[in-house]
Amino acid sequence: MIRNATPEDVPEILRLIRDLAEYERALHEVRATEEQLNAALFGPEPKVFALIAEHEGRVVGFAVWFLTFSTWLGRHGIYLEDLYVDPEMRGRGYGRLLLAELARIADERGYGRVEWAVLKWNTPSIRFYESLGARPQDEWDVYRLTGDTIGELAESAVTPATGR
């Protein structure tokens, strides 16, 4: 069963995030807390959303997503931040069902894209995504500002209030 996440799912969502990070060899980078996830997913104006995959009442997978916008298409899209299914539950269709639900949401709302990133070494996931018709966008590289670099760049901003 695929359903929208509820506040009661937050501990399981954090568990799945940590499991995904461990699989991706980056558990040391997880800083998210239940409080942060609850505020982001269920606060007054949520900007991020989650789907849950259940098997016999147990949470076995999730998809976390948010809206993007394509200036070229003039339409919103979905960016899939995380998709994860417990290893013992893989091959039962839960990943496909989560992506199918995202596609349904995009189609129903007139969104132009569903996109995500996958680690280059993650060949099982790459094969899975390609089996669904997804194609890599090799002409683009992803860039990121984090931590101190955000603050350093922000300090150089010119704001109307200060004129600096």
TrEMBL record:
Pfam families reported for this sequence: Acetyltransf_1
Asked if the Swiss-Prot or TrEMBL record annotates the protein with the keyword Acyltransferase, the reply is: yes
Question: What organism does this protein naturally occur in?
Answer: Actinomadura namibiensis
Residues covered by the N-acetyltransferase domain: 1-155
Official protein name in the record: GNAT superfamily N-acetyltransferase
Superkingdom, taxonomy of origin: Bacteria
Q: Which PANTHER family match?
A: DIAMINE N-ACETYLTRANSFERASE, GH14572P-RELATED
UniProt family annotation: Belongs to the acetyltransferase family.
Parts forming coiled coils = 13-40
List the molecular function annotations (GO) for this entry. N-acetyltransferase activity
